[in-house]
Model the fold of this input.
Amino acid sequence: MTKVLVAFATRFGSTREIASAIAAELISEGMDATAAEATSALNPDDYDAFVIGSPLYGNKWMGAAGMFAAITSERINGKPVALFSIGTLSVGNEQAGQAEHDAFIGKLREVAPKLNVVSDALFTGYFDRANLPWYLRIIDRFAPTPQGDHRNWPAIHAWAKSVASKFNS
Ligand SMILES: Cc1cc2nc3c(=O)[nH]c(=O)nc-3n(C[C@H](O)[C@H](O)[C@H](O)COP(=O)(O)O)c2cc1C
Done:
């Protein structure tokens, strides 16, 4: 059975739920998948394939997920990896959100050229204005992000299913 690690970073929890949904879909496709927060305690040798994801904060992944992807790439000898970003910029402006995701994934692949990326995707996330630090609440007044849960569960499950077939091939 293919052992898959779904490693994620999160600040407020919405990405944890997405990582769990991805792991559940991979399990329903016959894989042995586990979702876990990206830390150095995880041993990449224990897995055959990886899904790594993070919310975007200020155009970038959280450090823990980016570091995990870069360090893991040195240890896994080309095992397949699927990457996902979560963000809310794409809720109001799909093109800008996609460009931000593409730019980050491009940079990650530059610093981690050994990553064998078989798929990458951007999904809309969960935006709660109450999570903004006070200084960003001031900026947010001028460029308001749509508040609420924008997670597209059918799209997340469909992507996870497509990733399972790539991991199997
Ligand atoms: C301070 C702050 C900065 C953010 N920056 C971005 C960003 O640059 N691009 C984007 O698409 N979404 C951005 N978001 C939206 C988050 O990516 C989104 O809320 C995500 O679902 C949070 O994931 P988490 O609950 O796992 O921490 C930002 C949210 C906050 C609160």
The pocket of flavin mononucleotide is lined by residues 10-15, 55-59, 86-90, 97, 100, 125-127, 131-132, 136 (CB under 6 Å). The longest strand covers residues 49-57.
